[in-house]
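This part of the workshop introduces the protein records we will be handling. A record pairs a protein's sequence with a compact description of its fold. Comparing a sequence with its tokens is the quickest way to learn the format. The record below serves as our worked example for the rest of this section:
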Amino acid sequence: MRKIAFVLASSLLVTILPVAVQAKKKPKAADEPAEAAKTEDAAGKGNEALKAGKFDEAITEFTKAIAANPGSADLHQSRAFAYKKKGDAVKAMADYSEMIRLAPKDGTGYFLRGSALVQSGKFEPALADLTEGLKYEANNVDALRLRAFVYAKKKNYVAAVADYDEVLKAKPNDVAALNQRASYKLAAGQKAEAMADYDKMIALEPKSARGYTQRGAAKLAAGNAEAALEDLNEALELESDNAEALRLRASAYAKLGTPDKIAAQYDAFVTAHPTEAGGYLRRGSARMEQKKYDLAVADFEKARELAPTNPQIDSRLAYAYLKKADWDKSLEVYNRVVEAKPDASQPHRFRGFVYAQKGEDAKALADYDKVIELKGDDAYTYFSRGLLHAKMKNYEAAKLDLKKVISLSPKSDLGKSAKGRLDSLESVGIKVG
């Protein structure tokens, strides 16, 4: 049976990519010449239909071929592929199972059924199939890669590394495999060994940004921002518009506490990738750190133009308007955020603050009530609501909220401030009992 290539992405969260099956080899002839001719004719028509994307027709022809030669695992493989392309995973799975029944010591059926099980998120039976198939084809690197992915999904990173050890025995200079093994080693806590894989990647591809970017990411994750910058700078020398290296370099500068350099990195990112909302979102966030709220608003508005349904962008934009004290615009955007995420507490809390600034006390109070309903013991919201109650001359309610803050956070600055407010109420003749 034909082996089908299987591709894994370089991150732990990988995606199985569909791969094309070429025209199948001729099935073994049946005992009777007439039946053999029927099989060959139907199989040929099935392959032509597959090439043309006529999957129903291909299924019909392969079914005829199987009727003429029911013992052919290859024909079941071809029909399974047609079912898969049509989107009928159940019938494809039935054909994979029939392949295994007909050829129980051939790894192909196990690999294909295991692949389908992985795609449907059924990792335990997928692991069983892939392991069984590897008994018969121990050097099937595609099956090893896929089983490593399954092990990683089960957080058995040591086993995932072991499978990639076998892959790299077969393909010692496979840079993608080195990259994937390194990521699994990091997840397994094997940091030095992962760095060795990244070093080898760079040695094999010294003019590629990939190895430097991945090694820089690993160094950054380990808390070594300065060492990470060296690799990321090298990556950007090789590929100046590398989005991942630009993003990581900005993160490295953030860890080093240099917001001006962070913004500069995102300037470069936005220049290289002007249609990616993420660049504007991150640069806007850096400008918030710089307290450049006008520029932040401009970036968040651009990000929203590019990704109008992303609620995270609206949340940042609303807060930027809040920091500018543009209460009307902030309220307009927070209304969108609350509509999109009615059970998120933070938008209600900030919208309540905006309503309070606009003098719409009843609406502010409703938002604070909602935060406490959703989040429970939120000391900051109790404090804000207590101040609002005091402003509205609801002194008993103010007293209860401020006392709640003190009980929740007695030694914090917020708790001390609440105590001061209570004392202030008492000093003007409002009894605090």
Remarks:
- The chain has a mean pLDDT of 89.
- Residues 111 and 130 are 6 Å apart (CA to CA).
- The longest helix spans residues 33-51.
- The chain is about 75% helix and 0% strand.
